[in-house]
Amino acid sequence: MEAVDLEVMRAALAWTAQGKRCWSATVLSTYGSAPRPVGAMALLCEDGRVAGSVSGGCVEDDLMALLQADAAGLEAGQRLVYGRGDAERARLRLPCGGSLELWAEPAPLADFQQALRFIDAGQGCVREIDLPDGGSRVRAAQAGDVSMLAEGRFAQRLGPRRRLVLIGAAEVSRYLAPIARTLDFEVIVIDPRREYLDSWPAELPARRLAQMPDDALLALQPDAGTAVVALSHDPKLDDMALLEALPSAAFYVAAMGSARSTAARRERLALFELAPEAIARLRGPAGLDLGSRTPPEIAVAIAAELIQCSRAEETRQRRQAAAALDAADTCRVDG
């Protein structure tokens, strides 16, 4: 879930509390190039206000016109397809060859309230929609849950999905943390050096842990939604973190430093009998090669690499989930 979709749910509760009627639209599936991912949401209010998005704006305009013309037709929920044919794609300014399928319905306030309870407690959840009859429920998220459409049911993954663990409350961490928050990462900063951690700016939202990195990571149990970046400038602290992070399921493990210091770090890790395949997972120097020099530039480069790796992991999980469904179908047929 992206931060904008959290705003959609909160806006739905706020606007309906003002006595306004609202409808939500959710991306069920996409084909070709699409401006928003599966699971993205937009909220449309009868007074013309819009929160979130499912496209670049033209689809939202079309949805608003549809609501104003026939709101009753969407009371039970309706599947809508946009981008059929070149003429419609041109009218809606969809990318070449792109199309998207939406689920439009009156804003599901009870589901949003339940989802927000999960999210406010720091837990992910899934909203499941039975498309033939519009029934829905919200449940706690499980490992491997992704937003996807299958067999007439849509699963929408909501809430915390990704964590960014920063080793060291250093300068680059302070630039990277707010960027990561806008990308919908929960930010956790680990630094046993109280003078660094206590000087962390109060306006930068992050969970701060005054612990040794290996102990903290052992408790956090990095999963496939976790990224770990070593930024402390202290080889001892960074190496302790990497020894725990590299063998874990974390989708991204990186350390800041030059190519020379990265090579030396790999040699040190090998002395601790870390498996070669685990050491090979280390991304260093951290971040895409943008020619970055200053702390803000380095933070941007790391954020860019986080996006790249996160999207690759989401694609892998979605393919894995689809393969599991195919396998289940095969078992039913064979049985």
Automatic annotation (TrEMBL):
<protein>
    <submittedName>
        <fullName>XdhC family protein</fullName>
    </submittedName>
</protein>
<feature type="domain" description="XdhC- CoxI">
    <location>
        <begin position="15"/>
        <end position="69"/>
    </location>
</feature>
<dbReference type="Pfam" id="PF13478">
    <property type="entry name" value="XdhC_C"/>
</dbReference>
<dbReference type="InterPro" id="IPR003777">
    <property type="entry name" value="XdhC_CoxI"/>
</dbReference>
<dbReference type="InterPro" id="IPR027051">
    <property type="entry name" value="XdhC_Rossmann_dom"/>
</dbReference>
<dbReference type="InterPro" id="IPR052698">
    <property type="entry name" value="MoCofactor_Util/Proc"/>
</dbReference>
<dbReference type="Pfam" id="PF02625">
    <property type="entry name" value="XdhC_CoxI"/>
</dbReference>
<feature type="domain" description="XdhC Rossmann">
    <location>
        <begin position="164"/>
        <end position="306"/>
    </location>
</feature>
